[in-house]
Amino acid sequence: MAIKYSDLELAINTLVTEFHKAADDAPTMNTSQFQTFVSKQMPLIGKTVESEEGLGQVLQQMGIESGQNISFQDFWTLINTQAVQVFNNTHKEKDIKCNCLLQ
């Protein structure tokens, strides 16, 4: 019998799969690959990384130094930040805030 995955598990699988596809199946991607990946898969933040200044801000948010490649763990840091922002901007009960932080 085939395992039935939840929507959340399928979403996580999509994040991992798309990251590695964009990185040409490597463990990391360069900033050019990252810009293309984010522009295609995350259009809201994709607009930010179109400029060098915006890209620099996003890379800094992830803790990436100049010339350093981006790992999935670095990308997950960005996902965490985006998830908190989206939740805080869209949650119906405005008195509830997400304070999720990666350790």
Instruction: Give average pLDDT, whole number.
Output: 89
Low-confidence stretches: none
Strand composition percent: under 5%
Overall number of strands? 2
| Rg for CA atoms | 15 Å
User: What coarse outline follows from CA principal-axis ratios?
Assistant: globular
Helix and strand content put the structural class at: mainly alpha
The level of helicity is 55-70%
Distance between the termini: 37 Å
Strand order of the largest sheet: 1-2
Helix-strand pattern: HEHHHEH
Domain S100/CaBP-9k-type calcium binding subdomain: 8-47
Organism: Characodon lateralis
InterPro entries: EF-hand-dom_pair, S100_Ca-bd_sub
Protein name: S100/CaBP-9k-type calcium binding subdomain domain-containing protein
Describe the structure.
There is one protein chain. A two-stranded antiparallel ribbon has the order 1-2. It has helices spanning 7-22, 31-41, 43-46, 52-62, 72-90, and strands at 28-29, 70-71. The protein contains 5 helices and 2 strands; from the N terminus they run αβαααβα. It has 103 residues and is mainly alpha-helical. The longest helix is centred in the last third of the chain and has 19 residues, at 72-90. Helix content is 59%, strand content 4%. It is globular, with a radius of gyration of 15 Å.
How would you concisely characterize the structure shown here?
This protein is mainly α and 103 residues long. The protein has 5 helices and 2 strands; from the N terminus they run H-E-H-H-H-E-H.
